[in-house]
Amino acid sequence: MSVITAARIPRQPTNQQPTQVDLTELPEDTRQLIEHALEAARNAPDNDVYFDHMTTAITAAGIRQPRHGEIVRCGCTSCHCDVLYDVDDPDAWLYNDGAHEIPQCPGCADEHPGTNAE
Ligand SMILES: [Zn+2]
Ligand SMILES: [Zn+2]
Fold first, then answer.
1. pLDDT tens for each residue of 28-66
2. Does residue 4 lie within any of the structural domains?
3. Which of 8, 14, 20, 76 is most buried (most C-beta within 10 Å)?
C-alpha cells in the first residue's frame, strides 16, 4: 500500500529572467559593475578567473543563466544597442568585418545582420 503525497511543484527558478538585458536601462552603478566585470573577464589569466567575472556580470545584469556561463555585449556597429545576451543564444549572430569578430544580439541579428568580409 502506497502513501500518496502531494506532488511537489517544481520551482521555476530562472525561467522568468530575461535572456537579454539592455545595458542602458540599468542603473549607473550596476552598469559600471557589469562593464568592469566584462573587462576583467577579457583580461583574465585563466578560465576560473574568467568565469568568476562572468558570473559577477550575469548576476548583476539579472540575465537568465547562459548556456555556457558566458554573456557578451552586442558589438553591432549599425546601431550600438548595448544589449547583453547569452553568447550561445541560437538567435544571436557573429560576423567578421575583416579585422574583428563582431557579436550581434538576437535583435540586431534579425534586423541588420552583419556580413563577413572576404
Ligand atoms: Zn544588438
Ligand atoms: Zn544593431
1. 999 999 999 999 999 999 999 999 999 999 999 999 999
2. no
3. 76
Examine residue 15 and state whether it is found in any structural domain, yes or no: no
Q: Is residue 117 part of a domain?
A: no
Domain count for the chain: 1
Q: Is residue 118 part of a domain?
A: no
- Residue by residue, DSSP assigns 87-108 as TT-TT-EEEE-SSSEEEE-HHH
Whether pTM > 0.90 for this model: the answer is no
Rounded distance from Cα 41 to ligand 1 centre (Å): 20
Between the CA of 50 and the centroid of ligand 1 the distance, in Å, is: 23
Ligand nearest to the CA of 113: 2
Q: What residues have their beta carbon closer than 5 A to ion ligand 2? A: 76, 78-79, 81, 108
Name residues whose C-beta falls within 8 Å of residue 70's C-beta, 6 or more positions apart in sequence.
51, 54, 86, 87, 88
